[in-house]
Design brief:
15 helices, 6-stranded antiparallel beta barrel, 10-stranded mixed β-sheet, 23 strands, elongated, Rossmann fold, 3 domains
Length: 553
């Protein structure tokens, strides 16, 4: 017994207080169990989780009494009481516990029942509780059966959002929860900060035996990702289209040919910064797109448009500009009743994009098929964006996601998931305005679960992200939050105590909410077993070691 239900505070079916016995203690997140016998003779088992613990002097009236009590002048006793939030009743007879009932710490099977882990037919570990026990998530709320999508919020650099997202992938791929579908389940990760995620297949040299123990407690291997494909944009003005990466050489550069840009309707993704719905130049965008669709291809990936061969994106932008401004072709290319101001607004945005995306849309490299982002060859595909301007980032994310989503639509529903990890979600799906990439993300959030496309989105501030994307996320995770952000309505799923805790949690600690459990879980996840930056990587032969220009000097 760790304590008894106290009678000096109201006990309800949802919440009650426990007086802690001498020589015992309760801490935040402890799970407790107790029973009550009803007048009918029926036994009701009650379970709950500690949400707050208080200590006080009984017998003291003034703040200064503490000194007299410690000197033995005033009689008083130190007491501790824990606030418990109910999690489960068996059977579901919702009655309050009565004062004096004995309370014990739930362990083993009782703990599993208290947190509904016993009802999860398919579950995977998501971290460790404060006592070192594993915590689980019901896979059915991730794979689309009963819900889908994960959303992670927290301060950049402190909340470890990306590290936790990659840990979730590692757990999914290695825990066995995917079963036979693991072979063809894929992950698509967009790397937006530095070259940190370009080393997922390398051992982390900072991983020690104590940290490996965390993986052992979760029954997970402490190993890096085995099957990783790496893609990065080509260097600026490089005729060979060498990947713009400094820390390794086995990275494939990606770009789209001029003909692909025209025939696959990629033009709208150049205008993916969120705009007012009333913006008129979008009409010009779709009229121009219809004309580009008529382009003919060449072996090099160039496009032939109305007899003109176009081999660079700058030439394509100039051709479009001439067509929409020339009186002879303006009606056909820009559309009827389109004013000069609207055309000029379109041209300004188009020409402004040239220097940012011309290395991504080209026809000067042989065999452009080799430079497509291919997510089928490896279990994890990392697309590096960190060297790109924001407009180019939105273009790459939008085009890549639309292609992946359309491929899953053609394949139909299956148990083989596509997990999309995207940080800085507020840039791609802001709360206000509309854009092609936002529409793609909304489609994934609302229809993706039926196709096996799962969004693992992350952002510093959920209050700046489109509401429907947040609302469709069954699993919500919070790291360290700014105190102003923690008070926003988007974090209403967190009790007041957890909101306060979110402002002080250390890196590596997360607060996770899932639909099956009425209280959030505070968890810690193991130190990454894979390198999170080049300096941590243990490189083995064949893993693209850059040449040392000073070797031999």
């Amino acid at each position: 017994m760790v304590g008894r239900v106290i009678g000096t505070r109201d006990a309800t079916p949802l919440e009650f207080w426990v007086g802690v016995a001498d020589g015992e203690f309760l801490q935040l997140d402890d799970v407790v169990a107790l029973e009550r016998v009803l007048p009918t003779g029926e036994l009701v088992k009650m379970y709950g989780m500690v949400g707050q613990v208080v200590a006080r002097h009984e017998g003291a009236r003034f703040d200064s009494d503490v000194f007299l009590i410690e000197d033995g002048i005033l009689p008083a006793q130190v007491t501790e009481a824990a606030q418990v939030t109910s999690t489960r009743f068996e059977p579901e007879v919702f009655v309050p516990p009565t004062p004096g009932q004995a309370v014990r710490v739930a362990t083993g099977e009782e703990r599993e029942r208290a947190l509904f882990f016993d009802r999860m037919e398919r579950k995977f570990p998501v971290g460790l509780a404060r006592n070192g026990e594993p915590l689980w998530v019901n896979f059915e709320f991730l794979n689309g059966d009963r819900g889908a999508h994960v959303n992670i919020s927290g301060i950049s650099g402190v909340a470890t959002k990306t590290s936790y997202a990659t840990f979730l992938l590692h757990s999914l791929f290695t825990s066995g929860v995917l079963g036979k579908a693991a072979v063809n389940t894929k992950a698509l990760i967009f790397n937006v900060k530095g070259e940190d995620l370009l080393h997922l297949d390398r051992v982390n040299r900072n991983l020690d035996d104590e940290q490996r123990l965390g993986y052992a407690n979760l029954s997970l291997p402490s190993t890096p990702f085995e099957s990783v494909g790496l893609f990065a944009p080509p260097r600026i003005a490089d005729p060979k289209a060498t990947a713009d990466v400094a820390s390794r050489t086995d990275v494939t550069s990606f770009f789209w040919s001029i003909y692909e840009f025209c025939s696959e309707d990629l033009l709208p993704f150049l205008f993916s910064d969120a705009e007012d719905d009333r913006a008129q130049y979008t009409t010009v965008v779709y009229n121009v797109m219809a004309q580009l669709r008529k382009a003919a291809s060449t072996d090099s990936g160039a496009a032939v448009i109305e007899g003109d061969k176009v081999g660079t994106f700058r030439d394509l932008a100039d051709l479009i500009t001439n067509r929409v401004q020339d009186d002879a072709t303006r009606f056909q290319w820009a559309g009827p009743a389109i004013g000069t101001g609207t055309v000029n607004a379109f041209v300004r945005r188009l020409q402004g994009a040239v220097r940012h995306v011309e290395r991504l849309i080209r026809a000067d490299v042989p065999d452009p098929q080799r430079h497509r982002v291919n997510i089928d060859e490896n279990q994890v595909t990392v697309v590096d964006l960190h060297n790109l301007n924001d407009r180019a980032k939105r273009f790459v994310v939008g085009v890549t996601l639309r292609k992946a989503f359309e491929d899953k639509e053609r394949a139909g529903q299956s148990d083989e998931l596509l997990l999309v990890v995207l940080d800085e979600l507020n840039k791609y799906a802001p709360r206000e305005g509309t854009s092609p990439i936002k529409e793609v993300l909304l489609d994934i959030a609302e229809r993706g679960r039926s196709l096996g496309v799962i969004l693992v989105g992350a952002q510093q501030t959920a209050s700046e992200v489109e509401r429907r994307i947040i609302a469709n996320s069954s699993i919500r995770v919070v790291g360290r939050l700014d105190s102003a952000e923690a008070s926003r309505e988007e974090y209403g799923f967190l009790p007041a105590v957890h909101r306060q805790r979110a402002t002080i949690v250390k890196p590596g600690t997360m607060i996770l909410s899932q639909p099956e459990l009425p209280v959030p879980l505070v968890l810690e996840f193991p130190f990454p077993a894979w390198a999170t930056r080049a300096s941590e990587a243990v490189v083995t032969p064949g893993q693209g070691v850059p040449e040392d220009p000073f070797e031999g000097l």
